[in-house]
UniProtKB/TrEMBL annotation:
<dbReference type="InterPro" id="IPR001279">
    <property type="entry name" value="Metallo-B-lactamas"/>
</dbReference>
<keyword id="KW-0378">Hydrolase</keyword>
<feature type="domain" description="Metallo-beta-lactamase">
    <location>
        <begin position="75"/>
        <end position="255"/>
    </location>
</feature>
<dbReference type="InterPro" id="IPR036866">
    <property type="entry name" value="RibonucZ/Hydroxyglut_hydro"/>
</dbReference>
<protein>
    <submittedName>
        <fullName>Putative hydrolase</fullName>
    </submittedName>
</protein>
<dbReference type="GO" id="GO:0016787">
    <property type="term" value="F:hydrolase activity"/>
</dbReference>
Length: 271
């Protein structure tokens, strides 16, 4: 029995004897099946290969990024936020004892929270390694490919994990799509961590919103307007997305401007 990992998205399955024929995550139109065909590996095989390394890098006081090289799966960045609780925001696939030891030496983890299914990765392995719960919005329960008693399915639009760490379900990319508000980040001015529910674009003063990024399927204007309305109630100066892109200043303004531009473009009124 093996916990198979899809090499395209990096998400792990429940234990089965034979490699699955399809990946539930990649078969959805928001992701894609590799043109070369479906392929699988295991975390044990990745560790044994000696090819991978996950690096923990300070970003600002009490915020660290976690990146695997060479790139595996989607290639997302996870973040460790050392707020009132030590929270792993989103997840990456590659985990070995070196990473476990490094994080434990810095204080360990108290919880894991996910923005959406594309970054579930080996979340259960991480939760078991650190003995912590996983927070996933109930609307995305159907996308969990490896069930675990450590998963807490929360509901509603807001969940306070700690006094300075608040999950907000804003929808869009997935029904349960969630962002993390870290109120004490950026020396108290606030940081929003968004996965790619809100994606920082090439010009860092702007962001965008999509139903599918690889297949370039936009979200409806009404959905983006609702997302922007919810985000307008939050206070944050910086925004970190899942691909290590950062809006360094006035991120709340960037989100508002970008939502207006997006809605205008879809409505045919953008010059």
């Amino acid at each position: 029995m093996s916990y198979w990992i899809c090499t395209t998205c990096g998400v792990q399955t429940d234990a089965v004897e034979v490699q699955p024929s399809t990946c539930r995550i990649c078969s959805d139109e928001r992701q894609y099946v590799n043109p070369d065909g479906q392929s699988w590996t295991t975390r044990e095989a990745m560790v044994a290969s000696g090819n991978y390394r996950t690096t923990v890098t300070p970003e600002q006081p009490r915020l660290m990024s976690l990146v695997t090289s060479p790139q595996f799966g989607i290639g997302q960045t996870a973040y460790l936020v050392a707020g009132a609780k030590r929270l792993l925001w989103d997840c990456i696939t590659y985990l070995d004892q070196t990473v476990i030891d490094e994080i434990n030496q810095q204080g360990g983890l108290d919880a894991i929270a996910l923005s959406h299914p594309h970054y579930y990765a080996t979340q259960v392995d991480w939760a078991e390694a650190f003995g912590v719960p996983i927070y996933i919005h109930q609307a995305d329960e159907q996308w969990v490919t490896r069930p675990s008693d450590r998963i807490i399915f929360w509901s509603g639009d807001r969940l306070e994990l700690a006094e300075d760490l608040i999950l907000h379900r804003i929808g869009g990319h997935f029904d349960g799509a969630t962002v993390l508000e870290w109120t004490q980040g950026d020396t108290g001015r606030g940081v929003l961590l968004t996965g790619d529910i809100v994606r920082v674009v090439a010009e860092r003063a702007w962001v965008s919103f999509m139903y599918s990024y690889p297949n370039l399927i936009p979200l409806p204007a009404t959905t983006v307007a609702q997302m922007a309305s919810q985000l307008s109630t939050l206070s944050f100066n910086q925004l970190y997305d899942a691909f290590h892109r950062i809006v360094e200043n006035d991120a709340a303004g960037a989100v508002a401007r970008s939502a207006t531009r997006y809605i205008d473009a879809l409505g045919g009124t953008h010059d």
